[in-house]
Design goal:
Blueprint (H helix, E strand, L loop, with lengths): L2 H7 L51 E12 L2 H8 L5 E15 L24 E9 L1
Length: 136
């Protein structure tokens, strides 16, 4: 249940709307599933604030969660270049929460609050770490 999307779309005070509001009803005979925008009506299209089934979305996803790339330098070549001062060296890059493939319209299909509702929570942070390990 994407409560964030519901609140953003049905906020009819002309601020903090999503791009979905561009499909709103504007002229007689127009066919759209987005209600008419009426200035300063406090979400008049859903004044009860109840959850609407149109905001229940498929939350399936495929996520590239963790990648670690390492390169181990040749001990023989390393000894030659550093005059045996460095015995081993390893370079690495680690990435977490790299990319998510989903049709879910919210920020992150894994970021939900109580009762499986996306209610404006922050998505998981993407982290990139780089390091060098030396053996002296």
């Amino acid at each position: 249940m994407n409560i964030t999307r519901q609140d953003v779309l049905l906020n009819t005070k002309f601020f903090n709307n999503g791009s979905e509001i561009l499909n709103r009803w504007t002229t007689p005979g127009q066919i759209t599933d987005v209600p008419r925008l009426v200035y300063n009506t406090e979400a008049g299209s859903n004044s009860t604030g109840e959850a609407l089934s149109r905001f229940v979305e498929d939350g399936s996803f495929l996520k590239l969660q963790n990648i670690i790339l390492t390169y181990q330098f040749s001990p023989t070549r390393l000894a030659e270049v550093t005059r045996n001062n460095i015995k081993s060296a390893r370079f690495f890059v680690q990435m977490q929460n790299v990319y998510t493939w989903t049709k879910y319209k919210g920020i992150d299909p894994e970021a939900f609050s109580e009762f499986a509702q996306d209610n404006g929570l922050s998505p998981q942070v993407r982290t990139i770490s780089v390091g060098l390990s030396l053996g002296l």
